[in-house]
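Customer escalation, tier 2.

The customer says the design service returned an amino acid string that "doesn't look like it belongs to this structure." They asked us to rerun it and document both sides in this ticket. The original structure tokens are below, unchanged.
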């Protein structure tokens, strides 16, 4: 019998999905991510702060970057 998986926090699920979309080419370098509200709706989380937490982690790791007033974009990892 398989071992039950521990609860995975929503922000980690969001990070994993965003990484998968980037890796698959669905969201290529320079792609603008949907708004925080749109992402919260897409991932069915009640709190936009959960999405912000995931996005902040991906910015800190260099996978995304933000421009004040413009949004959050997929970074060009090849150039780093």
């Amino acid at each position: 019998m398989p071992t039950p998986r521990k609860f995975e926090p929503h922000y980690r699920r969001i990070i994993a999905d965003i990484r998968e979309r980037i890796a698959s080419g669905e969201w290529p370098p320079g792609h603008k991510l949907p708004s925080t509200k749109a992402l919260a709706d897409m991932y069915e989380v009640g709190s936009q702060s959960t999405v912000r937490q995931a996005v902040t982690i991906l910015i800190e790791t260099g996978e995304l970057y933000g421009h004040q007033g413009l949004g959050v974009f997929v970074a060009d990892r090849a150039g780093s």
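Tier 2 assessment: The sequence is consistent with the input. The helical segments are 10-24, 36-42, 48-60. DSSP finds three helices and two strands in the chain. Sent an explanation to the customer and offered a walkthrough call.
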